[in-house]
Specification:
This protein is an alpha/beta fold. It has one domain: Alpha-Beta Complex (Spore Coat Polysaccharide Biosynthesis Protein SpsA, Chain A), CATH 3.90.550.10. The chain is built from 8 helices and 16 strands.
């Protein structure tokens, strides 16, 4: 249990960020082996100050970019994820999460054992554990206890003939533990809110820097799959990582979206740029073989969307 873990977080003005950092250290069995890297883009100086104060108590490294109202130039999840990942410094593992995440007690021991077990199961150490984390919420602002809710497992699948912002193949989720009892399942894509990998992932996590929001899942999935990673879904009810969905916030635990910084015109331009950058990635000749390989595995065409679908159909092999 002397393995070191780097937690990569891209953050904005989320009030949940300090709670995420505090609970991940306090609930770890071996907090001395954990480093958190935060790329924070924020308007409110108090949020940067809070992060600086926390860095005096915990092992935190951070990169700061000032956000201004209606300034799209620094926005984008790809930029944030990339900046956070660059703070990695030779740890044994890296876990990529969102800045509104809850870690259960002994999460580090659990995930290290789970990763080792998945490696043995797949028969290859070039794996990524990935899942849409289970949802949590707060009952009210006076209480800090979280409430688990919704599906126990959130397995992603692509929807046929559905798209985000007209061009990006859309995915949905199912509580797959109700139909499959296998502890480990091949996953159609990585879910950026929780990806755990070793050094080969940490040194190059496949992040597409121009990605804005919806496009990050597909672009990161294509890049990582092309490099030979097996996407492994941990089909367990007690995954010790949960996600604060937008409808579960209360005062003191609020989260920000890119659109919260933009007026209507800049909002429109952000979405238009997202479509342009995604199509550019999908049609880039240098991505042709990678996209072809991913299409065969995940049954999704980067431009045309999902062309084969059955939520009970899971490929027999991980690659």
């Amino acid at each position: 249990m002397n393995k070191t873990i780097f937690i990569s977080i891209a953050a904005q003005d989320d009030e949940e960020l300090p709670h995420t950092i505090i609970n991940l250290f306090k609930n770890a069995d071996h907090p001395q082996n954990i480093t958190v890297g935060v790329a924070i883009t924020c308007m409110k100086k108090k949020n940067l100050k809070t992060l600086k104060d926390l860095s005096k108590e915990y092992d935190i490294v951070y990169d700061y970019v000032k956000q201004r109202k209606n300034d799209r130039s620094v926005l984008g999840i790809g930029r944030g994820r990339s900046r956070a990942a660059k703070l990695y410094n030779n740890h044994d593992f890296m876990i990529q999460i969102d800045c509104h995440t809850y870690f259960d007690s002994s999460w580090d021991s659990y995930l290290l054992h789970l990763f080792e077990e998945a490696t043995r199961y797949v028969g290859d150490d070039k794996i990524l554990l990935t899942a849409i984390p289970r949802s949590y919420a707060y009952c009210c602002s006076e209480h800090t206890d979280i409430l688990r809710r919704g599906a126990k497992t959130r397995y992603p699948f692509y929807e046929p003939d559905h798209f985000f912002v007209d061009v990006i193949p859309k995915w949905n989720e199912t509580d797959i533990i109700n139909v499959r009892k296998d502890k480990f399942l091949p996953c159609a894509k990585v879910s950026p809110a929780f990806i755990m990998g070793g050094r080969d992932f940490a040194t190059d996590p496949g992040i597409h820097e121009p990605a804005t929001f919806y496009d990050e899942d597909l672009t990161q999935s294509v890049t990582l799959f092309d490099r030979g990673f097996a996407f492994v879904f941990p089909n367990v009810e007690n995954l010790p990582v949960s996600h604060l969905d937008s409808d579960g916030t209360v005062k003191g635990h609020e989260r920000y979206f890119l659109l919260d910084y933009l007026n209507a015109r800049e909002n429109y331009l952000l979405h238009e740029n997202m479509k342009k950058e995604y199509i550019k990635f999908a049609k880039d000749p240098s991505n042709f073989e990678a996209a072809k390989k991913y299409r065969k595995y995940a049954r999704v065409d980067l431009i045309k969307g999902c062309f084969v679908y059955n939520q009970d159909l899971v490929p027999k092999r991980f690659r």
